[in-house]
Amino acid sequence: MGRALRIAVRGALAAALVGAGVPAEPAAAGSLSRPASGPLPRQAGVALPRPAAADTSGAARPDSGSSARVLAKRDRALREIFGDPVRAVEDRWRLTRAEVRSIGEEAHDAVPDTAPVTLRVYGEGHRLLGYAMVLDERGKYRPITFLVATGPDLAVREVEVLVYREDRGGEVGSARFLRQYRGKRASDPVRTHRDIVNITGATISVNALNDGVRRALATLGTLYGPEGGEPALGRRVPLPGGG
Amino acid sequence: MIRRFLVRPRRAPGAALVALALSAAWLAGPPPVRAQQTGTAEAPEFRVDLGGYGSTRLEAIDADEPPTSLTLRRLVLTTDARVGDRFRVYTEIEFERFGEIELEKALERAAGGADLEQAVEGTGGSELSLEQAWGQLDLGGGVGLRFGAVLPPVGRFNIHHDDDVWNFPRRPLIDRAAAVLPASAAWTEMGLGLAGRTPVGETGLLDWQVYLLNGTTLDFAMEHKLETRATGPSALVVEAAVGPSPGAVDGSSRADAVAARVALSPSLGTEIGLSGYRGRYAPDALEDGGAVSTLGMDGRRRLGPVELEGEFLYTHYDDLTRVLGDFVRLLGTREAEAAGTGGELVTEIEAEIGGLSDDRYGFWLDAGLPIALPRGVLGFEAPVLVPVARYERVWLSGDVEKVALDAAEGVAVGRADRRQGRLSVGVAFRPVPQAVFHLVYERNDAIEGALLDPGVSEGSTNGAVFGMAVGF
Asked: Quick check: ipTM above 0.85?
């Protein structure tokens, strides 16, 4: 079973911050395939601004979190959550079956994303501020695009709805609802009637966010280690290369 | 099943509505961007969502009527159209206890003339109605201008009446069977108004609606009954069922009512709402009109794992005796012209009154304890079991029961004070969020006068209701 990792410095935000003199994370666009059990070469490369229209979900989802507007909102949200200046490094993954199964079990998600895209967020001095994922979860009629940001300890720092396309249930995008997710970890239920207060008339949207948050926490925990922190070099370092 | 598709409307939905919308849009200017309500499509999006909800019941009580029966309680089909980023059109069409309505007409030659025949066939209790049909322009700042057939925001049930939202198979007495609302829920009126939501602090939300409405009015429905008797003459009874009804939508009734509701939610799961309604209920045919006023207080709150929700409504009819007398006399005079006796068939005229009292008030209080069942129970991902209890009581002071017309004696009005309590205890099971199965024991007690619902002669009833409601 092979796995490919691709990495690129995020587009607009990274370009802006690199241009502003913030030191860039060594990174390169591309991917490498390797046996799952094989050694991982160290990442090397330079920061490359990436075209904004790349698919970040790994699946053909309508309006998935890849459009220029979504990316712009993602950048704004990251700045609001982590503060300026921040720099984000985008990691693209192709998961093994074992990892998919592990994430699925932990997140109670029957079909987890097999090619997730994650973000590592850094502050000044290459200090790791946390991780983030942009997800599309289906609401009643349409996908809800939202961002889950965690601290280095993989506890939720903030959840922000980037695009809500339904005509009803928009209250799930309100700050008073989303603040419930702060501090949630992969070990928490993240479920209505347990630790999340439901919104009457928006139950499907609430459940969609719950599912997405659980999936994000399970994915980040699997990819960056259950305790978070810096990626374990030699084990899960994003790789340069073609692909 | 949900079907979604993209449509490009050939023309705007109504010239007057569009003119009003454009005017308001020009006055309001561009709305502030709100991430949670803004689409990502680069071009304006035109789309229609089809959905709805429905409910069925199996009920049995220890009285002769109604019989143990399976009921297709209602099926509501909805369309939700987004016409560009800031304009939305929403409709609900309700089929209530609906089986069939069929109209037959025939014209045939006959010896020396022709036979004209018209017949209406259908299943008993069937109703087809337009429950909502409105357009809304987003003015920005969380405020929308809404115009069309709307739900007057009185109490919390009328505006949140979808069956699948509730953990009980029956609507509360004060909203439906013994309505304290000026008309039974789901109560629809032609209205023009504003609806808004404003964040209050970090965790609060202010939700408000205010409308100008046509408003409820005394109306009648003509009912024909043929009463056959083995001895003596049979009777053709023409009965005018008189009661408050939603205002007309054909432009024939005055827009002289207002309704408003303000609800403050200091935090998720907690809300308190105040609402009111005032309008003229006497039909325009009467010169002197009385007013009907309704005040409502409602709310919801979480107490630990228990969810509480309730509503109190009070309605007062001004000058009810005078207005009712004038109306029935007017009605009776007109019908009397057609009255008469022919052979062995006697034509009688009656007027039956319902839903009118000097004062009507009552409350309901729901308590539920949602229990998130382990994943995989019965094969469902996130099933929820909710033990539930509801207590409700309604008071009708000076309830008008019947008015009989007699040309010699005039109008005879029968009144009574009536009071009923109902306790419902049971369990609701939600295999998925938008579907619920209920099993509820119901106890009805006539505290004063006869039972209002069910309309039986017993002073109390015990019954069980099994229901299913699904939103889709």
From this structure: no
